[in-house]
Write a structure and sequence with these properties.
The structure is a homodimer of 331-residue chains.
Chain A: E1 2-6, H1 13-26, E2 30-35, H2 37-44, E3 53-57, H3 68-74, H4 79-88, E4 94-97, H5 101-111, E5 122-128, E6 133-137, H6 147-165, E7 171-175, H7 186-196, E8 201-206, H8 208-212, E9 218-220, H9 223-249, H10 252-270, E10 280-283, E11 288-291, H11 298-312, H12 316-323
Parallel strand pairs in A: 1-2, 1-4, 2-3, 4-11, 6-9, 7-8, 7-9
Antiparallel strand pairs in A: 5-6, 5-10, 10-11
Helix pairs in contact in A: 1-2, 1-11, 3-5, 4-5, 6-7, 6-12, 9-10
Chain lengths: 331, 331
Amino acid sequence: MRVVVDAMGGDHGLQVVVEGAVAAARDGRAVVLVGRESDITAELTKYSGVSGIEVIHASEVIEMHEHPASAVRQKKDSSIVAGLRLIKEGKANAFFSAGNSGAVMAGALFTLGRIEGVHRPAIGGVLPLLHGQVFLADIGANADCDPQNLLQFAQMGAAYMEHVFGLQRPRVGLISNGEEETKGNALVQGTLPLLKRSGLNFIGNVEGKDITRGAADVAVCDGFTGNVILKLAEGMQELILGLVREAIMSKPIYKIAGAILRPGLRAAGRRLDYAEYGGAPLIGVRGAVFIGHGRSNARAIANGIHAASRAAEGGLIQRLEGSLVAVGTGA
Amino acid sequence: MRVVVDAMGGDHGLQVVVEGAVAAARDGRAVVLVGRESDITAELTKYSGVSGIEVIHASEVIEMHEHPASAVRQKKDSSIVAGLRLIKEGKANAFFSAGNSGAVMAGALFTLGRIEGVHRPAIGGVLPLLHGQVFLADIGANADCDPQNLLQFAQMGAAYMEHVFGLQRPRVGLISNGEEETKGNALVQGTLPLLKRSGLNFIGNVEGKDITRGAADVAVCDGFTGNVILKLAEGMQELILGLVREAIMSKPIYKIAGAILRPGLRAAGRRLDYAEYGGAPLIGVRGAVFIGHGRSNARAIANGIHAASRAAEGGLIQRLEGSLVAVGTGA
């Protein structure tokens, strides 16, 4: 599996992307760094004895603030567009970028196209839990959705978890404002009958607390709700660890106990760290495309490359395509 | 201020409601317990020297699983409907129930009606933060909303925070999937121009992390999103404190440090405990009506009575009514 990495993407610049790529290559991944060749090569000279990294020149860069669709149309030699073209041409198997996520989405749609039958591709996100994880879709590609979109997110999400995480018949939940079938907004009310007839292992509506308790392996919602959930989860983590820190600092004896506990608390925090989970897959486009957090550090980049490489193994696209069984809206 | 308390509401039964009412009365609140008189009186005999509690008989009970609107229509002598009637008749100033929240909402609409000009009342919720708190509306009354609804939630939410928390020109945020003005679903896109022209202290779109960092005093969204947020916040709290607990149990030396830290961690956890924050106000009905968490313990009940009593002081309804300035949708 050859993984194309957008060398120009991410808030922390080229050095961090190259550092992550080197780490992944040392773990045996085949990496193609796409971007300004001279800058990448200069950066690579800092590391000795690295094999498995190829560099391909792309002269343009899509910045974080640029309008996705027009940037993708105008900058055909950007690292994002040129990198995705390598997938299209069969020269590589997977793509990872921590850059402008809208541009990656638009670029993937223009360059690779959708999987046959997909109405709207989604961004999937893995939310780590106390035991295991939950796959959320959509986490931001489609702010407004219809029931058919959510049905497809559920089908592709379940196929993804089977394929990449090896789960058998993953439990699928529909995110709602209450577990009862009478709850939900118009979208949820319209989606519920489709999921019940889908043949998926559908467990019904799930609330915020069901999600964090691991009730579902796949939880579906529109991209607005999913994005709010993901960012609130990050915010709550920051808030609660801040409270724990304040508690530790409030008394000298607590400070001592806190110093002893620090490595344990740090390990606990790492279990929720996005950097361990390697980016969010774009599900529904014709290729294994992963979007990393803009804030990605080198570990996050390396884990993103690993995730993209693993996902591309053994026919992910065929698997997703096969999951799209039509479900009628009628009785 | 006389606060009517639904003696029959809450998952933990009458004893817990009475215990909370006794605690509030001992702190100087005037409480009217409404429900099965003989049961309430029997329970009250357990406490000696309590003054400030009146008991009013209501023969019926609306159970948690009943359909709100039909239960309210049929059970006119339920503790919820009879209790709200006391507000309508001017015999008491505020109402608190930890019972069927849909029935409280429906009962308040039927019995008290809406504040002049309000399209849809909302449920407001206080989310405690590291420093201060944020008032979220709607957290569940209206799963689907239009921009005018959200405008009114913002206006009433700001007036509520001024009136009850004494904030000057509270900062109002619009919950979205990104801070940029181009982000948002159709509802957010339609609401943004209204809030910009509202004369409120509007700070723009806020994401999950902005909310937990305290960027806004009032954050508005539809009741579906608000409910998901509130329940996810509870779920994340449980998840992260579970991780901290696992970390402490993972090594003997951590267990010792954890035992020393326990009171501090417990105090930190209490800062996020819903029980400290006294229930969720129904904003937009003609009365100070508070809904408690079904799981309310006695402390939560007592704090709910305090919050309802404080809110009813000094003309809350007039204040909310005065906040409803019309904002045109045109340019």
